[in-house]
Amino acid sequence: MGLKENDQSPSHKENDIDEHEFDDSFCFAPDDTPVSVLVPTNDNAGNKFDALEEKLAEIRTAQGLALSEDSCDEESSEGDVSGVEETLDFEGEGKAEYFDSGEGLGVEENISTFSELNLSRSLLKGLASLRFDRPTPIQKVAIPVALMGKDICGGAVTGSGKTAAFLIPIIERLIHRPKNVPAATRVLVILPTRELAVQCHEVAVKMAQFTDVRCCLAAGGLPMRAQDADLRCRPEIVVATPGRLIDHLRNSASFTLESVEILVLDEADRMLEDGFKDELDEIIKHTPKQRQTILFSATMTENVDELIRLSLRRPVRLFVDSNTAIARKLLQEFVRIREERETDRVPILLALCHRTCTERCIIFFPTKELAHRYRLILGLAGLKCAELHGGLTQAERLDSLERFKLGKVDFLTATDVAARGLDIQGVKFVLNYSMPANYKLYLHRVGRTARAGLEGCSITLVGEGADRKLLKMVIKNSTVPVKHRLIPPSVIEQHSVSSQNMQSALNGLLAEEREQKLLDRTEKELTRAENIMHHKKEIHSRPKKTWFQTSRQRMDSKKRDIQSLGDDRQRTGKNESVKKRRN
Fold it and tell me: Where is the composition biased (Basic residues) (predicted)?
């Protein structure tokens, strides 16, 4: 028996299969409590963070690295702005007829409260606990359509509430599911990154806390055994990353997707860009053909063939805003870095952190090495900082994210792992160490602030060449003035001296960390060898893990993904050139 559809008309990819170091004492929050799943029961990651903070404090005291405040203020001047709003073009030949026009669905957009959507009282209570007072524009149109069982291809600007837009109708339909049948997994939600999966699971658990709907998390980097035990209970909702889900499908005997009736692909374009094409094909192959599919993304690809490949059947298009739109309450500022002054990036960043972006600030870097290096630099400068990137264990990543969310640190140095989808309330500033690779990635970075109607500020250090071209695109698509921030030379000079003074201490810390990593790796290999010697029979008696591809097939798939990504970028460049000629 299927889910009961509401017949009323309501007004670089991460390898999830590889095990990361993570203590087995990690506990998942019970599904009937709103406890955050972000906090492990062990304090290994927290102790490591505290130890580094103590060491940085000792170095600051010993070498006198504390920075004195000065009276010079930065100056800002407005740049030229031409506000242009672009929309997705799905009206081409062969595309429009693929989508459901949505006519006759009776969707009422003039909705001011969730109660007007005829939702169950237990769900409304869960929404109230999350302080969800009124539906956002994407929720107003998506929830009624999803309750009707229609396939959805939806998109809106980042921070518009897409996660709740699919979770609310899912939980509402599960509340009315048949109760006299065996438990089964009826909903599968796929997300590209572990952090997004943890966040989505946390929201789902809190939203469903007053119902009998259970939710399980199956994300990479977390203990397989705990997830396997949860999946055996056949929870109604499974939130997963692609690699770990396939691992469970292949190696957890009791877990199947035969009963899945709703498939959600969140940030679908990101999964395709990250090379999860074959994994998504494999997952879709294991789900029933007669299902509802909901595809959401902050930015939607124009290649509708990809959406067809993801098996949407006559989906309703729900695009609330332009895919190039920037939040209206976001103040964008840029600091020019001339080619001969590239060494000024460090003092300029320090000046901004000390004087302007003093709290609730995320700083984006192009590599994990730079993100870690500047975490140490900010620590030596006396600023409370955490880091988030792929060079950390999953426990350390979740610990850093939780510290920043709770306000225990003021700064978060991060790579683009934190750029997409993560909903961190109250982020006031976003700093870009350099321009990102493309405009879409810029949108996601600055989208971490000015969310849910709040004000925010982004400051980007802009170099020459490609950076200038991207800056022009940002100015073109902005509906509010873009400002050029000037840092006084005296301020740059002061922080330049400070950064030079901490260079020897920084090099010493990095050298010490390299030695510690080598020792940890050696100890890990020694422990592994001892386990093999003492538990040889038990280890060899375990069934080997399997994967749906051979090593050769995985290599070929990776090459195809790289080639496809390059072709997409080339097509995008050609399309932009055509637009310029037309204008």
Answer: 534-545
- For the record, the structure tokens of 445 come out as 């970075």
Per-residue pLDDT reduced to its tens digit, 499-520: 999 999 999 999 999 999 899 8
Sign (positive/negative) of CA torsion 576, 580, 581, 583? Answer: positive
pTM comes to 0.74
Q: Which of 247, 236, 237, 210 is nearest to 19 (CA)?
A: 247
Length of the chain: 583
Alpha-carbon distance values, 381 to 58, 161, 401 (Å)? 12, 37, 21
pLDDT, one tens digit per residue, over 260-302 is 999 999 988 788 778 888 898 899 999 999 999 999 876 655 5
Q: How are the residues of the chain apportioned to helix, strand and coil, as percentages rounded to the nearest 5?
A: 45, 10, 45
Half-sphere exposure of 421 (CA within 13 A, CB side): 24
3-state secondary structure 176-243: CCCCCCCCCCCEEEECCCHHHHHHHHHHHHHHCCCCCCCEEEECCCCCHHHHHHHHHCCCCEEEECHH
Q: At what angle are helices 345-355 and 368-380 packed, to 10 degrees?
A: 60
Q: Which domains does the chain have, with CATH numbers?
A: 50-83+325-501 (3.40.50.300), 96-319 (3.40.50.300)
Strand duo 262-266 + 316-319: pairing: unpaired
- Residue 165 to residue 298: CA distance in whole angstroms: 13
Q: Are 312 and 297 in contact (CB under 8 A)?
A: no
Sign of CA dihedral 515, 414, 242, 169: positive
State the SS3 of 263-319.
EEEECHHHHHHCCCHHHHHHHHHHCCCCCEEEEEECCCCCCHHHHHHCCCCCCEEEE
- The whole-angstrom separation of Cα 391 and Cα 394 is 9
Q: Do 9 and 23 contact (CB within 8 A), yes or no?
A: no
Bridge-based pairing of strands 482-486 and 75-78 is antiparallel
How far apart are alpha carbons 401 and 393 in whole angstroms?
12
